[in-house]
Amino acid sequence: MTQPPLVERWGIHEITLQGPQHGNPFLDVSLSADFTHRHRTVSVDGFYDGEGTYRIRFMPDTLGTWRYVTRSNASELDGHMGELVCVEPTGGNHGPVYVRGTYHFAYADGSPYFPIGTTCYAWVHQGDALEEQTLRTLKDSPFNKLRMCVFPKDYAYNKNEPVYYPFERNASGGWDLARFSPPFFRHLEQRIAQLRDLGIEADVILFHPYDRWGFSRMGAEADDRYLRYVVARLSAFRNVWWSLANEFDIMEGKTLADWDRFFRIVQESDPYQHLRSVHNCHSFYDHAKPWVTHCSIQHSDLGRVREWRSTYRKPVVVDECCYEGNIEENWGNISARELVHRFWLGTVGGGYVGHGETYRHPEDILWWSKGGVLHGESPLRIAFLRRILEEGPEDGLEPVIASWREQAAGREGEYYLFYFGVHQPAVHTFDLPGGPYVAEIIDPWEMTIMPVPGTWEGRFRLDLPGRPYLAVRFRRAR
User: What is the Cα–Cα distance from 96 to 109, expressed in whole angstroms?
Assistant: First the structure.
């Protein structure tokens, strides 16, 4: 008897089976497996991976022995039984990210997670050399989340043909939307796995409007089949998030009822309930709907984060607040200082903010779409902010004080982070309950932390440098 394989918690166990190739296996063959641990059963959909090969991927989340049996309408695939042993995770494996405390996030093992994201929409469609360069850049960056599209993109600065396409061609040269291209999805999976190994969450964008191939205009049957196939292939990767769309509200031909249906399909098909969101251009989707786990927002007014928290009572991630860069379009030419300022505004509003970079390049290799290397000045300052967050309360920052002069977030009686933005007071009056506190003056651009002598409590005046874009941190004296 062979010993059952050992699979680390939140790792992937893959079952590979050989089955029918005739007809269209993508349409004709159904495949799933029931994984049982004690009195709990998790049902997982399988998928066809071409050339007679079928796969089922399972992410065990509980230690111990799991037993499985396959279900299929094809006799060759039905009734296969086996078991695996789920063991302790290794290295940086903390499991999937979920919502914690209404407005924040944590890994499945309870470790805090503060999303510091960036955007590389079409990076997986650029060929190995550029994609590997992007991974090297990400390895040395502060980013722990990456927004990325499944489908290739057609837009300014992004007119090249992709290496792989998601569907096979039919006899007339058009797309056969009933036959997926396994090499395309294997390549996508490879890149998602590489992000996972770097500790980066893959915020997978399922639809987008920037398309010359027709993938944004598929009918309902093809849309739904595509969603189920993608979820079957990718859901066992612990670092996957589902973003239903980039700028859903400008996708012609898709109605709100369609987006509701797409959410439900993903929710019902994903046995692990990864995070789910949808990103807007002009009009917000109703993030209060039960299948939405967090708000993914495009907006340049970061002072409204508190409002969105109150409206939707979910974590707010401003994934797009304009990009550091110098292209012609105004959404892509704000300064690094302005982007860092917006990060801090969103942070003290109790939310999270995403990075993007759009500097002109002779070969149109802009980070926001193709990846490559970073040229801007904001990533170092964003890394500094990430350090500030990780040194703060594990459960995240809650808005505690707001006025026309400053905003602050923290935890009452324990921790306060004030940010003055464009204001530059040389002295400021604070009124803090509890205490005493130690104080530090923080310069987000110069990335300095200057301790203030003594301890502070109650109502007091504190001398400040009289420069804009400064913060003051108070931590309870121990």
Answer: 9
Rg of the Cα atoms in the chain? 24
**Element of type H or E holding 20:** none
How many whole angstroms separate alpha carbon 197 and alpha carbon 164? 23
CA–chain centroid gap for 10, Å, is 17
Dihedral of the alpha carbons of 297, 303, 304, 305, in degrees to the nearest 10? 60
Beta strands in 25-80 (DSSP E): 31-37, 40-48, 53-58, 64-72
pLDDT tens digits along 77-110: 999 999 999 999 998 999 999 999 999 999 999 9
The whole model's pTM is what? 0.97
Rounded Cα gap, residues 201 and 463, in angstroms: 41
Write the pLDDT tens digit of every residue in 442-457. 999 999 999 999 999 9
The Cα 281–Cα 202 span in angstroms is 21
For the cut 80, the answer to whether the pLDDT of residue 1 exceeds it is no
> What percent helix, strand, coil does the chain show, rounded to 5?
25, 35, 40
- Selection from 50, 52, 58, 49 nearest residue 15 by Cα: 58
- Contact (CB, 8 A) for 409 and 316: no
